Amino acid sequence: MPYNKEELFNLPVEEKLELVEALWDKIDDELMPVTEEEIKFAEERLELHKKNPSEGLSWSEFKTKIKEKYGF
Q1: pTM to 2 decimal places
Q2: Which band of pLDDT confidence, cut at 50, 70 and 90, is reported for residue 30?
């Protein structure tokens, strides 16, 4: 599929970002496809969360815990 780099470079920033995101998603899917095992794990975790949404850590608690443990 032919494309003109100059035309792409002249797109508005919003359109460039959309294009970059679409390209990155495509590359990500090709290089690191999600396995059935990963999907099953995520679905199980989601069900656990739905059954007990107050369990676990908030995002800020999680970030603090990781920062304390690993220093970043």
Answers
A1: 0.48
A2: confident
